[in-house]
């Protein structure tokens, strides 16, 4: 009994430590975060196999909310149960929340968006995402059909950039995969069994709570004159309606708070620059806005509200995921979906990561060095991050 408890505690402590380190070093936005997760959780620690990770990424891309945070929570759940998922979320999110609360309290008027070290961290994201894409493409697009699905996803996401384009692509790719790969003998199942210590009853409660809050909070906001309820409702609704990653939440938050007078345009832009300067999920921008409106308490409430929908949805869907993905028809659809995820990642790699980072030939040269350090020399990601930041400062001096 004690041995089991000690093993459980060891797992939980490991989850917290690893996720915190990722929360301190994962720069570059949601696509880059998936690359960091792939490198740390899959390649180095082998907490999941490649196909299970790809399936989880596909699920979280389909769900509203911050996909990278949901992937991290899902990995934490599979490693250490519900508490493991919560610790994975806390570790990955808290560093940037603290940093942005400090920015909002003291430094949000500083012009840091164009600092050299920030540009260096963008080049780190180029290397990280390129490495992740190559690894995932090798496993998830082995034949011409799936390469074509990935190409379809690239073209559509680049030419049709809306909040719903990813959802449409995933649905269509799943349909194509179902029609082409529905024969159960097409591909051997190499994925391992995934056991989730969340009952379907608890999952159902989480889903009911998600939709219940989405409906009841606006009603409560109109009947009770409370700034805290209004604040919670605005962030919860924004977190519930975001498809396509953290960048999409920024215009939603702008429309939610600037016209109401809670936040000025200058304050919003200063916070946006600060958000680009810190690691972790872009959704932590809510911590900055909440702090500007109601102090550090407002920052914490805003963080909880904007992430709560993502947590409820991932807890509500994970218990059904393993049985669904092992159904031959669902597996066939997932083969198409996984190929489309590769295309979506390549599209995001070009825009905004490449277009905002590779501005001159010297940027590409430095990104190639960082990629080689990661892919060929097998150096740990934190060294790549540190090298990128220092190199960005040197590039700014040239």
SSE topology sketch:
Layout: H1 2-25, H2 30-44, H3 50-62, H4 67-107, H5 116-140, H6 144-159, H7 165-181, H8 200-223, H9 227-240, H10 246-257, H11 265-277, H12 285-325, H13 328-357, H14 361-375, H15 381-397
Helix pairs in contact: 1-4, 2-4, 2-5, 3-4, 3-13, 4-12, 5-13, 5-14, 5-15, 6-7, 6-13, 7-13, 8-9, 8-12, 9-10, 9-12, 11-12, 14-15
Write a structural description.
The chain is mostly helical. The protein has one domain. The protein is built from 15 helices and no strands. Helix 2 packs across helix 5 and helix 3 crosses helix 13. The longest helix is centred in the first third of the chain and has 41 residues. 50% of the residues are buried.
What fraction strand? under 5%
Number of domains: 1
Which residues form runs of ≥5 with pLDDT under 50? 185-190
SSE order in H/E notation? HHHHHHHHHHHHHHH
Oligomer state of the chains in this structure: single chain
Give the helix tally: 15
How helix-rich are the residues, as a percent range?
Answer: over 70%
Radius of gyration: 21 Å
Judged by helices, strands and strand pairing, the structural class is mainly alpha
End-to-end Cα distance, whole Å, is 62 Å
User: What's the mean pLDDT score?
Assistant: 83
Q: How many DSSP E strands?
A: 0
Major β-sheet, in short?
A: none
Q: Characterize the overall form.
A: globular
């Amino acid at each position: 009994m004690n041995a089991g408890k000690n093993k459980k505690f060891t797992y939980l402590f490991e989850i917290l430590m690893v996720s915190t380190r990722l929360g301190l070093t994962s720069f570059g936005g949601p696509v880059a975060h998936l690359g960091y997760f792939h490198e740390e959780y899959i390649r180095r620690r082998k907490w999941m196999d490649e196909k299970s990770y790809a399936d989880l990424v596909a699920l979280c891309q389909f769900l509203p909310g911050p996909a990278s945070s949901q992937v991290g929570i899902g990995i934490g759940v599979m490693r250490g149960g519900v508490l493991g998922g919560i610790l994975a979320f806390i570790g990955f999110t808290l560093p940037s929340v603290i940093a942005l609360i400090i920015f909002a309290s003291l430094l949000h008027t500083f012009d840091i968006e164009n600092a050299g070290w920030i540009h260096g961290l963008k080049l780190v994201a180029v290397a990280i995402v390129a490495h992740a894409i190559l690894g995932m493409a090798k496993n998830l697009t082995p034949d011409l059909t799936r390469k074509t699905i990935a190409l379809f996803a690239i073209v559509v996401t680049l030419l049709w950039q809306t909040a719903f384009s990813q959802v449409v692509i995933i649905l269509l790719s799943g349909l194509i995969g179902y029609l082409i790969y529905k024969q159960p003998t097409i591909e051997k199942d190499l994925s391992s069994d995934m056991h989730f210590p969340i009952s379907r009853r608890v999952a159902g409660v989480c889903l009911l709570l998600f939709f219940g809050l989405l409906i009841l909070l606006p009603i409560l906001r109109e009947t009770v004159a409370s700034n805290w309820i209004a604040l919670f409702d605005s962030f919860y609704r924004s977190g519930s309606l975001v498809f396509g990653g953290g960048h999409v939440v920024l215009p939603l938050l702008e429309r939610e708070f600037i016209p109401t007078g809670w936040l000025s345009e200058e304050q919003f832009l200063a916070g946006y620059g600060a958000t680009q300067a810190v690691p972790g999920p872009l959704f932590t921008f809510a911590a900055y806005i909440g702090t500007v409106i109601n102090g550090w308490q407002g920052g914490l409430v805003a963080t909880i509200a904007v992430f709560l929908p993502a947590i409820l949805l991932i807890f509500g869907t994970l218990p059904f995921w393993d049985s669904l993905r092992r159904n031959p028809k669902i597996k066939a659809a997932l083969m198409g979906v996984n190929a489309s995820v590769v295309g979506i990642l390549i599209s995001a790699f070009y825009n905004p990561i490449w277009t905002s980072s590779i501005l001159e030939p010297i940027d590409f040269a430095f990104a190639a060095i960082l990629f080689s350090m990661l892919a060929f020399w097998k150096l740990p990601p934190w060294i790549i991050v540190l090298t990128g930041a220092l190199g960005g400062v040197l590039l700014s001096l040239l």
